[in-house]
Amino acid sequence: MPVIDETTTAPFKRVHADPRAVLTGTHFINGDAAACEGALAAGARFAAGYPITPSTEIVERFAARAPHVGGLFIQMEDELAASITLQGMVWAGQKSFTVTSGPGFSLMMEHIGFAAMTETPCVFMNVQRGGPSTGLPTLPAQGDMMQARFGSHGDYLTIALVPDSPQECFELAVKSFNLAEQFRVPVMLMMDECVGHMTEKVVIPKAEEIEIYPRRHASKPPGEFELYKTGEDLVPEMAHAGEGYKIFVTGLTHDQRGYPLMNAVAQRELVVRLFEKIRRAADELTMIDEDQIEGADVIVVSYGITARVAERSIQMARAKGLKVGRIRLQIVWPFPEKRIRELAPKVKAFVVPELNMGQVVLEVERCAGGACKTIGVPHPGGTVHKPAEILAAIEKGVRG
Amino acid sequence: MIRGSVVVVTERCKGCGFCVEFCPTHVLELSSAFNAKGYHPPHLLNAEKCSGCNLCGLYCPDFAIYGYREPTLKTAAAAPAGVPKKAEQEASNAGDR
Amino acid sequence: MSATTELNVHNPVEDLLRQDRIPTIWCPGCGIGTTVNSFVYALMKSGLDLQKVAMVSGIGCSGRVSGYMATDSFHTTHGRAIPFATGLALANPELTVVVYSGDGDLASIGGNHLIHAARRNINLLVVCVNNMIYAMTGGQAAATTPPSSTTSTTPFGSYEPDINLPQLVDAAGACYVARWTAFHVKQLETAMTEALKKKGFRFIEIITPCPTLFQRRNNMGDGLAAMKDYKERSKIRHGAPTHEVAMIPGQEIIVGKFVDRERLDYLTLMRQRLGERYQEWIDAPPQQEEETGKENCDLC
Lengths: 400, 97, 300
What we know:
The structure holds 3 protein chains of 3 kinds.
Chain A: E1 15-16, E2 25-30, H1 31-42, E3 44-49, H2 56-65, E4 72-75, H3 79-91, E5 95-100, H4 102-107, H5 109-118, E6 122-130, E7 136-140, H6 145-150, E8 159-161, H7 166-183, E9 186-192, H8 193-197, E10 199-204, E11 211-212, E12 248-250, H9 264-279, E13 288-291, E14 298-303, H10 305-319, E15 324-329, E16 331-333, H11 337-343, E17 349-353, H12 360-368, E18 373-377, H13 387-399
Helix pairs in contact in A: 1-2, 1-7, 3-5, 10-13, 11-12
Chain B: E1 4-8, H1 18-22, E2 28-30, E3 42-44, H2 55-59, E4 65-69, H3 85-94
Antiparallel strand pairs in B: 1-4, 2-3
Chain C: H1 32-46, E1 53-57, H2 65-68, E2 72-75, H3 81-91, E3 96-102, H4 103-108, H5 111-120, E4 124-130, H6 165-172, E5 176-181, H7 185-196, E6 201-207, H8 211-217, H9 223-233, E7 234-236, E8 253-260, H10 266-274, H11 293-297
Parallel strand pairs in C: 1-2, 1-3, 3-4, 4-6, 5-6, 7-8
Antiparallel strand pairs in C: 5-8
């Protein structure tokens, strides 16, 4: 286990958003636009990206908004560049992000791993579309969920959030940046084409009501500060280029100073800590929207746009007198194992509709551990489920 | 004539020979002593011809040699032939086989 | 272990090295370290604030340079030093951002980024250490490997034409393009000093020996033999048209400053275009803490 020194890092503080960046008011905008406003409200003024349907609108809006907050958007030559240019912006002292969809997400994987390894706080917004490969650029899917967890090589953990509406695109975008700073990880905001392109009412509150996690900066002076030394929360403080700390950031396995140290001992210390800093916060990172769980025979577990269709299916089932509960995942990774494990013995089945051939259902089934049935409702994407499809699965779950 | 000398960090040297080759006054040669890694570090052969120009230092890829001009010498007599005492001791311990 | 002795002599290069990481991993006779000397002296002579210098490298033997320098150093992914450096340079224009990497990293896998950073005239100095091989991974052919060379992936001799880097970068729009060899320590230092003081995309190619892989496999002797060869075959032609400076085995190595022109850099162009739309941002004063360390304990 990593050596923990309780006095090493300063406590984490939270502040509120800067009003100059917040478009307070009631808006009628789509999810992409709302995500852009969320990034700005969170304090991101610099972004790098590459156009890819259906995410492009996020950065198109950002390109127009950024100059007003002294920032900029640079459209890089490809996603390989965009995914690391944003990290250069972060190490220069800014919050930064990029947006993409399936094919670009695949290209960005090496640098998601680099961000995880170097503990670079940043946000990757994936507005998912039909895949694999070029797939369906303008149509929804949720086929990148496992990729959000396992996409890059090697062992690392990320956090993945899934909004179900433009309103949530705003709120979870802000939360994505906060979690990135709190845990020093790349955070995936997993939207989908439906949520990204649907236009709904979005209420952006006053800046004073938006909680922001600022960059947790080194609390010791140069010479005393070690870039990857951590305290009790296993998350290091950060120093930036140009501040006199002579930081050394590398993707190689490294020691607390950041110097490459390529042996099994260093690997164990580093990689285990990268896992533990997230695992130990499992409860805090459980973000689910539950309804009528008590006494339910079947619980529908869903996320994103599918959750909205599932909601209709649940209404139809309840109208037939069935006892159906709902778990809507807002944070998918880390997966809320504890909650599924404790509910599995109490229900007949989990029903897991997704716009993919079965990804998060594997986690549900794993955690249910055979204590109940797990019924997936796969769908290769291109459109959303019909409520009747999910209703059929619910009824099957109730019948046993 | 400007006089100078060199300091050799023998344990860094990898015996590449750049300094010997590119010294404009040809005052260096690789010694028969060797360091812990088995390389032969340079030493001053014709110390009186060293101008302290530090071309050897500029060429050295391993930061193992540095040439300096006489004014930084505390006393001319105190200067050994370019090899610091500690390194000299190590060199003689390593043997001259 | 340093060069400071009771004689009060000090090698100034050591001030900019992470001495706890020396000796370097580079082979005997490798020229990368030689280029670092020129660079360190250039940094010192440039008058720049050394605290604001950020070194960015990719992967490869030359990519290890950032790790040996006592500056803010970033050892990034293969081929992507330039886009990372772009991020640093744009988000904090006060930084002096230098990319120091190898020919494979910058011109093969990183070729696209090289072209576009030059096109955009991002304010970066790119030092391309060209040893004409992928050395770190065991000596595979690179885009810069001369035809007929034996490498580990061209066991019967390479049959791919090699690339003319100064021409490529010139065509893409770089405002400073020079080539020297590791033999030209003083000229290199001068070139680096003037390049450091210039704004825009600057590119310096340094032909450097790889004794263990390139030289040895092609029966060209060791690092010293290469350095002597550079000395023999180099011809300084300042201002030479870059399409004339291709490296041809056995023929002259054209070195010198080929391009030195004024072009507005990326941020200047941006500000000109945006005009009043661009509003300077000054960070608000730190807020009163809303939460204390107690919240942190909930994570325990």
